Amino acid sequence: MEVLKTLEDLQNIRKNIKGSVGFVPTMGALHNGHISLIKKAREENDIVIVSIFVNPTQFLPGEDLDAYPRKDEADKKICSMCKVDYIFMPEISTMYTKEEVLVKAPNNSYVLEGKTRPGHFDGVLQVVLKLFNLVQPTNAYFGKKDAQQLSLIQQMVRNFFLPINIIPCEIVREEDGLAMSSRNVYLSAQQRSDAVLISKSLYMAGNLISKGERNSQVVKNKIYDVMSPLDVEYVAVVDRNFNEIETIEPKNTIILVVARFGNTRLLDNFWL
Amino acid sequence: MEVLKTLEDLQNIRKNIKGSVGFVPTMGALHNGHISLIKKAREENDIVIVSIFVNPTQFLPGEDLDAYPRKDEADKKICSMCKVDYIFMPEISTMYTKEEVLVKAPNNSYVLEGKTRPGHFDGVLQVVLKLFNLVQPTNAYFGKKDAQQLSLIQQMVRNFFLPINIIPCEIVREEDGLAMSSRNVYLSAQQRSDAVLISKSLYMAGNLISKGERNSQVVKNKIYDVMSPLDVEYVAVVDRNFNEIETIEPKNTIILVVARFGNTRLLDNFWL
């Protein structure tokens, strides 16, 4: 495994790769969710490249850019154990200059996460586009936990005609059901214990739907019930284009929940 | 020569090209300026692809999108004579969907053309990025007449790490000096005759500078003098980053002029 820091290093390596390239872009602090993406990339490609870059443009002023967990040495060990071929680990000054041509998320994406964090997705799309152009992957792997992000990246690939396959990957959970996230380390013991209600509420919703319930409001009420001890930011029932829907359509519905624990926002979701 | 209409046609052709690809993106109504780009592309590449697409997103409301000259059959003949390999001539619905991930020109680009036509460069960069990703050219050819556009495309290539060489090409002029433009057809006989003052003013400016003048204001005054019969929109002396400069620096200066003839804006410039 080789750690690449500069554009030139990455570009020189990329030029000489003949086979398929699997790419897993990350902000580091790798957990089992990331590992599942890397393992899938390893199975499906000749070469696997992981990027580790805490991207400043996707953090809003006042968010946790400085506090975001950095675990470079542990991350390298994890990548090495997962038989990653190359880690790309650039400096901010390698990725950005002062004034830049920008990427802007579609006007209709300013809902849910796009509403709570206006500009967040612009930064995500900007860095993902840069990384895609550098790495030129055959396949790129993203977790379903960041559902709206995944959807917007898929849309960017379609809109910009990028010759890349986006591979959505299942959410990986702790034993009690909590969706894995690098931000789970921010939780106190009490918050960590309360957080189980997030996934539990989705599990109960799934149960209701499997018994035939199709009314979004009834399902949302159930989720709010289960999460009532928590500070719930939103519960939404949307189609694959992130339009809210009143009637649940099997195979075209995502149920999204966000709960706050102090400054920490935890996302979870369930795809039908 | 083959005319390609769909994404699939272009993508299938592109997959099987092994050598270098020279790309000339145009809005059609080809004149000697375009022909010079195509000839250069022909000399320098194995395969030459020209796109003809009147891009709606770079026209502002009230601009000449509908009136913009369309000359598809003449354009095809010109391309054929210039030994172009493929013309890509998509429909609007092939290039765009309803809600899109957008490209946004840098915040400091809202000067000169960016100020007169806010949003214009967003549309230019959006379509050029789409075309670049489809055509995947080795070299892409742009005229210096649209100097700010050229500079922003070069910046997009740097910012997004696109593996493409941008080749700036000299302005081609009519015998009396008027810079070639598809919009010259809008001019009345009187306007066409008056328009010679635009290039003449730049020629006089060049003369002054070659005699040692370095004061931007003195040079601008000379240009305004020569163009005094015209409706001059702006005269600007800028560096290669389009920052206005008070002192002319050889090898890092562009002198830009825009004059209005009714609704028609004619651009010209001179690079030191």
From TrEMBL, chains A, B:
GO biological process: pantothenate biosynthetic process
GO cellular component annotations of the record: cytosol
Superkingdom, natural source: Bacteria
Keywords: ATP-binding, Cytoplasm, Ligase, Nucleotide-binding, Pantothenate biosynthesis
Subcellular location: Cytoplasm
Sites where the protein binds (R)-pantoate: 58, 149
Keyword Coiled coil: no
Binding residue positions for beta-alanine: 58
Active site: 34 (proton donor)
InterPro entries: Cyt_trans-like (IPR004821), Pantoate_ligase (IPR003721), Pantoate_ligase_C (IPR042176), Rossmann-like_a/b/a_fold (IPR014729)
Gene3D superfamilies on file: HUPs, Pantoate-beta-alanine ligase, C-terminal domain
Catalytic activity: (R)-pantoate + beta-alanine + ATP = (R)-pantothenate + AMP + diphosphate + H(+)
GO molecular function, one term: ATP binding
Involved pathway(s): Cofactor biosynthesis; (R)-pantothenate biosynthesis; (R)-pantothenate from (R)-pantoate and beta-alanine: step 1/1
Main localization category: cytoplasm
Residues noted as binding ATP in the record, renumbered to the chain: 27-34, 143-146, 172, 180-183
UniProt keyword annotation of ATP-binding present: yes
One Pfam family per UniProt: Pantoate_ligase
EC number: 6.3.2.1
Function: Catalyzes the condensation of pantoate with beta-alanine in an ATP-dependent reaction via a pantoyl-adenylate intermediate.
Further facts: The reaction proceeds by a bi uni uni bi ping pong mechanism.
PANTHER family according to UniProt: CYTIDYLATE KINASE/PANTOATE-BETA-ALANINE LIGASE, PANTOATE--BETA-ALANINE LIGASE
HAMAP family assigned: PanC
Family classification: Belongs to the pantothenate synthetase family.
Oligomer and partners: Homodimer.
Protein name according to UniProt: Pantothenate synthetase
UniProt source species: Malaciobacter pacificus
The organism's taxonomic lineage, starting at the top: Bacteria, Pseudomonadati, Campylobacterota, Epsilonproteobacteria, Campylobacterales
Name of encoding gene: panC
